[in-house]
Amino acid sequence: MNVEAEKSRLRGGEAPTQRLFFALWPSEEVRSGLAEVMASLDVRCAKPVPAENLHITLLFLGSVTTQTRTCAEKIAEGIAGHPFELSLDHIGFWPKSGILWLGARELPESLAALVRDLHLGIAGCGIDLDARPFSPHVTLMRKALVARRERPLGAVAWRVDEFVLVESKATRDGSHYQVLTSWRLGADSCGAQAS
Ligand code: 2AM
C-alpha cells in the first residue's frame, strides 16, 4: 500500500485511493528525442519536467478507489484501437500556467478515437472527468516565464502501439509516476500487461 493510501486509511476507514491517469508513455528512444528538444530551448525561470516523467496524458482520473480503478481497467481492456504515428512538431506555451509543451499539429484519427473511447467508457465508472477537448501534449517545463526557441525544431517521431495506466505519487522531490498496466493497441482483448 502506498503512503497516501495508508494515510487515508488511518484517517478513519475511508476507502484508500490512488491518483491515476491514462497516458502514452515514451520509449527510451522517444524520451531522448524529447530531452534533445528540451535542451534546445532557452527558457527563463522554468522548472523542467524530469526526463523519466515525460508523457502524454490521455485522460486524468484523479484520486479513485480500487473499485473505480478496476472499472477503468476493464474499459481499457475492451479497447482494441490501432497503432499510429505521432509527430511532435510544435512547441506551445500557456502563459497563465507557465507550461511549455511539445505537441502535434496533426491529431491522428486513431489517437482521437482512443481518447474518445476511454472518455465514454470511463464516464460510466462514475468519475467526474475533465470536459475540455483533448489537446495532445508533452509538458516539458512548468513555471516558465519567457520561452524562446534557439534553433528550428526537428519533429520527434513516435510510433505509438500501446497506452498505459499511471499512478502519480507526491514525493518530497516532486511527482513520481509509476506505470501500473499497459495495453497494446491493435491487440485483441487479451492485450493487458501488468508492469
Ligand atoms: P499536464 O502535463 O498538462 O500538467 C499527471 O498529473 C498528469 O495528468 C499531468 O501530465 C497533467 O497534465 C495531467 N492532468 C490533467 N488534468 C489534471 C488535473 N486536474 N490535475 C493534475 N494533473 C492533471
Question: What keywords describe this structure?
Answer:
195 residues, 4 helices, 39% strand, four-stranded antiparallel β-sheet, 24% helix, five-stranded antiparallel β-sheet, alpha+beta, globular, Cyclic Phosphodiesterase, Chain: A, binds adenosine-2'-monophosphate
The H-level CATH homologous superfamily, spelled out, is Cyclic phosphodiesterase
Instruction: Give the proportion of residues in helices.
Output: 10-25%
What's the count of strands?
Answer: 13
Query: What is the CATH class designation?
Result: Alpha Beta
Which strand-content bin applies to the residues? Answer: 35-45%
The geometry reads as globular
User: Which strand order does the major sheet show?
Assistant: 4-1-11-12-13
